[in-house]
Design goal:
The structure is a single chain. The chain is built from 25 helices and 17 strands. The chain has 633 residues and is an alpha/beta fold. It has a seven-stranded mixed beta sheet with strand order 10-11-12-9-13-14-15, with helices on both faces. A four-stranded parallel beta sheet has the order 2-1-5-6. A two-stranded parallel ribbon has the order 3-4. Helix 18 (472-486) crosses helix 21 (532-551). The longest helix has 20 residues, at 532-551. 39% of the residues are buried. Mean pLDDT is 87; it is low at 613-619 and 628-633.
């Protein structure tokens, strides 16, 4: 792997990073640059197994890549800023992202930016998180290039920059996990997949915003099987997995039954996997004892100022345990969320070969999860912490997949930006590569998953949009309003019918008779007493409101991962998006996927435009138009 450093007379920090990486079993290749030529080094002097395979097959030209280029498994920049141009290219970050994308895509290795804070002191980082320009340098600009797993390594103390060795250890361990994941044979990789179940008790287990989880799960399992992952006796092919997603979710929901849960792993085993067993799915459950959780949350006893560096606090080895017990009580006597009768903490799920599938534990804290970012004394409940630590340390997953939008681990208490060693998202995710499936239309929250939860975001499409239209009650109301608009003299005879429909449809709150009134609903009987002029004005507002409602875009159905929208969905989407601007014939051609030329022909036919078959004909048309204009003058 390669580590980029700025040229500097003091090599202390550079040596510390390289030494810790060697301690993790990595072989660092330090590269020292002046700050502007990092991308040329990557392009010309570094390569990867993947890039060499593309060159050998003729899919990628060698270009300026040297024959003696060094093969690396990961790229780590301790500088920040964009890859192309460095600090000098900061104002060009967005425009140069495509250049960086081309270089990094050909190498296809993890690109990690981890640097000490150059313009923020460590005390403010620990207290308020990384802020302002420092967040742009360390997060925003590198993310345009595709950087992942950003770890702040230290910061200013006075006028000097110090590293936090514990943070360097976190960087090294995460890079090591990514490299090990690539090198491990696909069939040997152990994975964990986390589904969601919020809100509890209403059948929400296995749901995600805008995503059809059961069908998407089947798509993922089929793709993994084709890629060589070991999924036990699972039959091959998409058709053979029809119904498996729902069967897995049914099993996971059954595991949540309090009586089953209280019996611990024995209860989960006795329950079985239900219908999912016909595909080879097996129940999988583990119990974590209070003592085990203590050990998993305890820092090494020998850690002191040397490991934590010059931060404004020095956590005791049982700092996290004490904080958890302060909120949830003594772990030995804890009988709370998802604990068993014997006091152990249950981690339920199902196993499909080397893939564990489970449901993310509930937060156990009422209200907006955003408050967890600001109420620093809050902690996840014991079973929540036990689940993630068990996946890391006992199950020893090679990677974790959060399936859809969205989970909660990235919202846990800690620094708002720039994880420290006592940020709960950092503690529970540890070194695990975290692949996070997220809807493409929500960058504001996916960026939190990326930055606080070390999420490598895989965006999925949103369902196609359609026009909302009007259901029967509102359609009848619209017809009544249309009658009044066409013949205002009929308003007296239609007042009660209109008011009755408005009341039945619940529209009075959205469109009241008196816009600044007391919110009192108008009954059908009272409507006849309203003056005609006032009632007509209300009818006009109602009509405009229904027009807006009818034409509003909404997501039609749920997206299935890896599946394209159906022809009817595409047609509805195009009609909704373009309205009358796109003729029905063109909509049909585009929805059927008949190609650009067919769509062009349909548009020309709809608008009666002559086809420009030859340049000569176009020239003749222009000449004839000029002649007509001269004659007019």
């Amino acid at each position: 792997m390669t580590v980029f450093h700025r040229c500097a007379p003091d090599m202390t920090n550079c040596n510390a990073v390289c030494s810790q990486m060697e301690a993790e079993g990595l072989i660092p290749v330090p590269v020292f640059i002046n700050g502007v030529e990092a991308h040329t080094v990557v392009r010309d002097q570094l390569t990867s197994e993947y890039e060499q395979s593309l060159i050998a097959s003729g899919e990628l030209p060698r270009g300026s890549l040297r024959k003696d280029a060094v093969k690396v498994d990961a790229l780590v920049s301790t500088i920040g800023f964009p890859l192309v141009g460095g600090p000098a290219g900061t104002m060009e970050g967005g425009r140069q992202a495509e250049v960086a994308k081309s270089i990094l895509s050909s190498m296809n290795v993890p690109y990690v930016v981890a640097a000490p804070l150059l313009i923020q002191d460590m005390a403010s980082w620990a207290e308020q998180g990384i802020q302002g320009l420092q967040s742009v340098v360390l997060y925003s600009l590198p993310e345009l290039d595709g950087a992942i797993d950003t770890v702040p390594l230290g910061g200013l103390v006075g006028d000097d920059i110090f590293l936090v060795p514990e943070r360097v250890t976190r960087l090294s361990s995460r890079v090591h996990k990514w490299v090990s994941l690539r090198r491990k044979p696909t069939s040997d990789r152990k994975l964990a997949l986390m589904l969601y179940g919020f809100p509890p008790g209403v059948g929400a287990t296995g749901t995600a915003a805008l995503l059809n989880v059961p069908k998407s799960l089947e798509q993922l399992l089929a793709a993994m099987q084709e890629a060589g992952y070991h999924l036990g006796p699972l039959p091959s092919g998409h058709d053979a997995l029809e119904g498996l997603g729902e069967a897995i979710l049914k099993t996971l929901k059954a595991q949540e039954e309090p009586r089953t849960f209280s019996r611990g792993a024995a209860g989960i085993t006795a329950l079985g996997a239900g219908e999912a067993e016909q595909w080879g799915v097996q129940p999988a459950a583990a119990e974590v004892t209070p003592q085990q959780l203590r050990e998993l949350l305890t820092f090494p006893a020998e850690w002191g100022p040397t490991e934590w560096g010059p931060i404004p606090y020095l956590p005791s080895e049982d700092f996290l345990v004490k904080r958890m017990e302060a909120q949830w009580g003594d772990l030995n006597s804890y009988r709370g969320i998802n604990s068993t009768m014997s006091g152990t903490l249950l981690v339920p799920g199902v196993q499909v070969g080397n893939l564990w599938i489970g449901v993310q534990p509930l937060l156990g804290v009422e209200g907006d999860p955003m408050r967890l970012l600001f109420e620093r004394d809050l902690t996840p409940h014991p079973q929540y912490a036990a689940t993630y630590k068990w996946l890391q340390e006992v199950y020893q997953a090679d990677a974790l997949l959060h399936f859809g939008m969205h989970g909660t681990v990235e919202w846990l208490p800690g620094a708002p930006l720039g994880n420290t060693g006592i940020s709960w998202s950092d503690v529970l995710l540890g070194a695990l590569p975290n692949v996070y499936l997220y809807a493409a239309n929500n960058p504001s929250e996916s960026i939190i998953a990326k930055r606080r939860g070390y999420g490598t975001i895989v965006s999925h499409n949103v369902p196609p949009y359609g026009r909302a239209g009007l259901y029967k009650q509102l359609s009848s109301l619209r017809d009544l309003l249309a009658d009044v608009r066409s013949d205002p003299t009929s308003v007296s005879s239609l007042k009660e019918a209109i008011a009755g429909n408005v009341q039945a449809a619940g529209l009075q709150a959205d469109c009241p008779l008196v816009e600044e009134g007391d919110g009192r609903e108008l009954s059908a009987e009272e409507a006849s007493q309203v003056p005609d002029e006032e009632f007509l004005a209300w009818c006009e507002r109602l009509f405009l409101y229904l027009q807006t409602l009818e034409n509003r875009l909404f997501s039609e159905g749920l997206h299935v991962l890896g599946a394209s929208p159906s022809q009817s969905q595409l047609a509805a989407y195009l009609s909704a998006y373009y309205g009358d601007a796109l003729p029905p014939a063109a909509v049909d051609v585009l929805a059927e996927g008949r190609g650009v030329e067919a769509a062009r022909s349909a548009l020309e036919a709809a608008y009666q435009m002559p086809a420009a078959s030859h340049p000569e004909s176009a020239t003749q048309q222009r000449q004839q138009q000029q002649q007509r204009q001269q004659q007019q003058h």
